Amino acid sequence: MQLSRFSIGTGDRFGLEGEAQIAAFKELRAHGGEADIVWNKSNREHVIIGSSPADQAAAAAAAIQRTGWDGRWFVDADHITLKTVDWFIPHCNFFTIDVAEAIGKKASAEARAAYLERAKFLLEEGAAPVPVTQVDIETVADKFLASVQEAGTTYRYIAAKKPNDSFVVELSMDETDAPQTPAQVAAILVAVAAENIPLATFAPRFPGKFLKGIDYVGDVAEFLSAFEAETRIVLWASEKLGLPKGLKLSVHTGSDKFKLYKGIHEILVRLGAGVHLKTAGTTWLEEIVGLAEAGGDGLTLAKRVYAAAYARIDELVAPYANVVEIDRARLPRPEDVAAWDSATFVHALRHEPGSSTMQSDMRQLMHVGFKVAAEMGKEYTDALLEYRESVARNVQRNLYARHLLPLILG
Ligand SMILES: [Zn+2]
After folding, report:
1. Around ion ligand 1, which residues have CB less than 5 A away?
2. What separation in Å is there between the alpha carbon of 205 and the centre of ligand 1?
3. How far is the CA of 49 from the centre of ligand 1 (A)?
4. Whole-prediction pTM
5. How large is the C-alpha radius of gyration of the chain?
6. Which among 35, 37, 66, 346 has most CB atoms closer than 10 A?
């Protein structure tokens, strides 16, 4: 099973925003664009929130039914491993296999030798879209081969429990210490083909920083050059390595990367390629923006979530230490925030491209602060229902105007 040219990861932490998210995809369609909806949620998020993959699948199906949406949609077991995949298997049709733990482990000498033999054609001039050296192949053999074998084992474990061709497979290597080079990506895909994993998307680690809820930090030209080279490589891999047609790159922590969307769009148009973009956590932030914008009790609740997150920063940041960079000295103090009016709070949290009022430290803290709202339980979800219009409007606008539009329509 493969994805369409464009697919968008749309997390929905509390399972109440499906209709507003679908409204964004309807808006995209009304403007001539189309993308698959992929409701993704990781094991970590389920554990923190106290939800299950069954809840996630039921929320998605209910939103589809209520809206009558006839586009393609998926439920993604995000960042799963052999240890965590079981409870996702009956409910998901998209599996993001995360092999970060196996990166750097050694494959057997036999497997290493077989891989080096198989990959040596890459050394011939013009064999791949970028030059590949013996050092590249050996680096992949030493650093990534064991993790690709682990992905193969995980894929076969899932495939044994699902009907043929009933799910999509992504391989993610984004949560690693250093970006892979394009040449390494080419050599990694040779190993993926050898494992016979019918890959739909591949998530490398790109150059630069992809932090939660804020714009790309790094050299945009350097990112775009890697993105273009690696897009050429996945196209080549589906043609030359026997990997599935339509194989594309996946960009994780892809929300709010406003500096990149125009360049990504241009590359995809030029190469006739597609992309998968994960925007999961932003929807939860739009719930808080929507509550604050509604004023009254909604604003009070938004301030309470912030104050509690501020007090519990160490605990909340710990699971996300690699993907947030919060300067604590720049966080507004809860006693000051308590005096803010609705517009001040909204402008501090909302992330419009180029916004001069958005406070990135506060926004990153709130991004990882959903545990606080989860603990409020019904009080929080009741507020989302009470202030539905404001919350839904913000969720839809964020997804369509700030993400789908620049990325897909340009
Ligand atoms: Zn990821």
Report:
1. 174, 252
2. 9
3. 18
4. 0.96
5. 21
6. 35
Gap between the Cα atoms of 20 and 399, Å rounded: 9
For residue 128, the CA-to-ligand 1 centroid distance in Å is 26
Residues 252 and 254: their CA atoms lie apart, in Å, by 5
Dist. CA 9–CA 265, nearest whole Å: 17
With tokens 């892979």, the residue in question is 180
Helix (H, G, I), strand (E, B) or coil at 209: strand
| Tokens read off for 271 | 């190469």
Q: What is the DSSP string of 252-311?
A: SS-TT-HHHHHHHHHHHHHHT--EEEE-TTHHHHHHHHHHHHH-HHHHHHHHHHHHHHHH
CA distance 80 to 196: 19
9: tokens are 């990861």
- The rounded Å distance from CA 402 to ligand 1 centre is 20
Domains of the chain (ranges, CATH numbers): 6-281+401-409 (3.20.20), 282-394 (no CATH)
Question: Residue 177 — φ and ψ, nearest 5°?
Answer: -75, -30
What are the pLDDT digits (tens) for 301-351? 999 999 999 999 999 999 999 899 999 999 999 999 999 999 999 999 999
Tokens of 58: 């039921």
| Ligand 1 center from residue 126 Cα (angstroms) | 32
156-203 pLDDT, tens digit each:
999 999 998 999 999 999 988 899 999 999 999 999 999 999 999 999
Measured in Å, residue 253 CA sits from the centre of ligand 1 at: 6
Q: Which residues pair with 40 in a beta bridge?
A: 76
Residues, the chain:
410
Contacts of 212 (CB under 8 A, 6+ apart): 253, 281, 320, 323, 324, 364, 367, 368
CB 70 within 8 A of CB 29: no
